[in-house]
């Protein structure tokens, strides 16, 4: 998706935007099981490594290595672990915020599916430390209406950073 070919209605744009805002709210408030309900059963969730390469207009997204390459089942396993005592990476719990902007929506050949491009900024702090971790970039989603509810069927995350400076990759974007 490079540009929006034909804009969708304001009502549809609001519905899909609200899905992304609801997702951010769930993640920021540790409501991970509720977040899983926003995902389709056949979900593909991928964040490849961004490479630094020379040249203008060259592809700098790796095709052979990912930070994440998940399914709904693997994300469910990660979420369920957060509710156990062995999730030491979240003890004490981190404070996090997901900011979503520049939401662009494009029709597909399926009237129940839309391509959605958005920018994200993720910020996280932990404990009493003054350091703030951040990750930012672009997301390419496929959203689908399932039983009258919008859900995320595919997410392709393109981080802007070639070097991820977060302490771990336990977050969901």
Features:
173 residues; 20% helix; single chain; Rng_hydr_dOase-bsu; globular; 6-stranded mixed β-sheet; alpha+beta; 3 helices; dioxygenase
- Look up the CATH topology: Nuclear Transport Factor 2, Chain: A
Q: What is the strand arrangement across the widest sheet?
A: 2-1-6-5-4-3
Report the CATH C-level class.
Answer: Alpha Beta
First CA to last CA: what distance? Answer: 19 Å
For the residues shown, what is the average pLDDT?
Answer: 90
Give the fraction of residues assigned to helices. Answer: 10-25%
Principal-axis shape equals: globular
Number of domains: 1
Number of strands: 6
Name the CATH architecture: Roll
What's the order of the H and E elements? HHEEHEEEE
GO molecular function: 3-phenylpropionate dioxygenase activity
Enzyme class: oxidoreductase
Protein name: 3-phenylpropionate/cinnamic acid dioxygenase subunit beta
InterPro entries: NTF2-like_dom_sf, Rng_hydr_dOase-bsu
Structural summary, described in words:
This protein is an alpha+beta fold and 173 residues long. The chain has one domain: Roll (Nuclear Transport Factor 2, Chain: A), CATH 3.10.450.50. It has 3 helices and 6 strands. It has helices at residues 10-28, 32-36, 72-82; strands at residues 39-50, 61-71, 95-107, 113-125, 133-146, 149-159. Strands 2-1-6-5-4-3 form a 6-stranded mixed beta sheet. The mean pLDDT is 90.
């Amino acid at each position: 998706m490079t540009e929006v070919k034909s804009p969708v209605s304001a009502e549809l744009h609001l519905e899909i935007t609200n899905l992304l805002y609801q997702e951010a709210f769930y993640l920021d408030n540790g409501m991970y099981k509720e977040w899983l309900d926003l995902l389709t059963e056949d979900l593909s969730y991928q964040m490849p490594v961004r490479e630094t390469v020379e040249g203008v207009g060259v592809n700098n997204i790796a095709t052979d290595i990912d930070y994440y390459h998940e399914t709904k089942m693997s994300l469910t396993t990660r979420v369920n672990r957060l509710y156990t005592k062995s999730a030491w990476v979240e003890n004490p719990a981190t404070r996090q915020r997901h900011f979503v902007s520049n939401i662009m929506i494009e029709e597909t050949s399926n009237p129940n599916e839309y391509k959605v491009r958005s920018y994200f900024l993720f910020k996280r702090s932990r404990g009493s430390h003054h350091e703030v971790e951040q990750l930012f970039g672009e997301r390419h989603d496929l959203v689908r209406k399932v039983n009258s509810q919008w859900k995320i069927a595919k997410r392709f995350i393109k981080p802007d950073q070639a070097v991820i400076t977060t302490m771990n990759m336990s977050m969901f974007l």
